[in-house]
Design a protein that fits this description.
- The complex is a heterodimer of chains A (about 270) and B (about 90).
- Chain A is about 35% helix and about 15% strand.
- With about 270 residues, chain A is of the alpha/beta class.
- Chain A has one domain: 3-Layer(aba) Sandwich (Rossmann fold).
- In chain A, strands 3-2-1-4-5-6-7-8 form an eight-stranded mixed beta sheet, sandwiched between helices.
- In chain A, strand 4, helix 7 and strand 5 form a beta-alpha-beta unit.
- The longest helix of chain A has 18 residues.
- Chain B is an alpha+beta fold and about 90 residues long.
- In chain B, helix 1 links the parallel strand 2 and strand 3.
- In chain B, helix 1 packs across helix 2.
- The radius of gyration of chain B is 12 Å and the shape is globular.
- Classes of the chains: A alpha/beta (about 270), B alpha+beta (about 90).
- At the A-B interface, helix 1, helix 2 and helix 3 of A face helix 1 of B.
Chain lengths: ~270, ~90
Amino acid sequence: MDFTEEQIERYSRQIVLKEIGGVGQAKLLNSKITIIGCGGLGSPVAYYLTAAGIGNIKLVDFDTVDISNLHRQILHFTKDLNKNKTQSAYEKLHELNPDVKIELVNKILLPDNIKDIIEDSDFVIDGSDNIPTKMLINDACVNLNIPFTIAGVIRFNGQIITVNPKKKTACYRCVFGDITEHEPSMSCSQAGIIGLIPGIIGSIQANEAIKYLLKIGDLITNRMLFLDLLKYRFSFIKIAKNENCIACGDNAKNLIETYDYNIGDACFE
Amino acid sequence: MTLVLSDINDLKSNKIHKLDIIGKVCPMTFVYTKLALEKMNSGDILELTLDFPAAVKNIPDNCKRQNIGELIDIKHVDKEKKAWILKIKKI
């Protein structure tokens, strides 16, 4: 592909990298990534991927900007209160890099619509704030064979896993199983969260996406990364693929059609 | 498209590509060099004309470090204007 002089200048610090170059930059510009959620995680993810020149980005969020979001959701400003998060995010991202085609989906992600929303993606990033949605993203991506990364953040803690169904790596359900067996988890609004933890974890998610697209380095697959910013513990825990996993195991079911996710009952902050 | 390479065939059949990066400074000197090398075949020669003194060392060093090209000739063509011609062979 031929770059404009502006593109060569804009992406020069990436093109200089041995692992990227002009060939890698062209790949990024021709890629499609879907980001679920424009909040704490989605903000840094969308910011860095837009800046890096991922050519096509789809932003999915149904929510509006609340003043309590602003300490961590860095794409939204005080002037954006009550605005759709996707619109608020678009306004900053388009100013940051007009090269990038940004599509907005103002919908709650549901079993009914997830396939239509993600099926043309090269990579999907979970920036949702509840376990049922993370499971839904996991199950749909496994089913459609789309690599993805799921993260969670709360208090001073974060965790992240990447799943590559093309290489049959362990999925989110291999770790957490059937969520209907668990009590609903506590949300950020109740437990609290330090604003910068989604910044760090979201940046790692963006890194996972770029590295997957360029086939460079090692991904956080078949393991999970846990961060504890109080004690500064950064630890990887190995995850084995579960042969009996209901999403990706030998007798996996088509969960999107049959599973009761209770998305509506999930605790949205 | 601003990266214009001019091709001339040399006697040994390895193509020589000319690139003028007069006025460019580091790191853009290496960025343009790298983009040009990526478009060439292994064994082809890139003949760079440049006037940024630090690039005379930086470009060959970076090409070597990234294993994309090796310096085969260097000429100081215009001592007053400080212009150089570097020949880099694509690896």
